[in-house]
Predict the 3D structure of the following.
Amino acid sequence: MSPDGINNHGASIPGFKREFLHSCLSAKVLTFGTYTLKSGRQSPYFFNAGSFHDANLLSAIATAYAHTIVNFLDTNHQVPCPDTLFGPAYKGIPLACCTLLELRRIDPIKWGKVKYTFNRKEKKEHGEGGGLVGAGLRDANVLVIDDVITAGTAMRETIEIVKREGGKVVGFVVAVDRMEKIPSATDDDGVPRPSAMGQIRKEYGVPTASIVTLEDLIELLRQNGDETDIDRLKDYSRRYLASD
């Protein structure tokens, strides 16, 4: 591991990850520059899952999520196959739906009866009412799909929603693990802190997975010879890399 905390093993990126990253780059879902995050940090890259808004891009991200979930379950034998995929409003909604369709395509026997659920930002008082759309969660093992986690607030809210409805979150899968420590009031203080995903694993005992990580992104740039962007990402990592 290099001084910036990033592995420089030069390992090849798995095919589904490479295709996902190339789709992100070509569609400008993943861009490089200077971006102010909600935390106030100045990030050298930005990932916007909301830009997956045509059929080809939806297919690319669904395929990547599905392969990630299959690998996640294969390597975490204690995690049961979920009864429901949960997509937190709003970006998680189409991600959960299209991923479930791809999982069924891969293995219709295993995934054909798995359901989907998402929450409403505001409870509906008429019609069927309630705060959820889709399958009920009572006694359900729930796998949550979201885009990017930074502070972990949405993760905690989702765990509480599922718990309140009688279900159990058995895992979180996100598109990009930024591998950066939780923001604080004195953010650029050099104090080691875990990532939001690491903190969730510690607090709730919920395993997590991601399609790609910051390491994967740097490796792809290295193979493409994009030294300027690599240097900026490594500098960001030196300042904010999580301790987990």
Summary: The CA atoms of residues 120 and 131 lie 5 Å apart. The two ends are 14 Å apart (CA to CA). The chain has eight helices and eight strands.
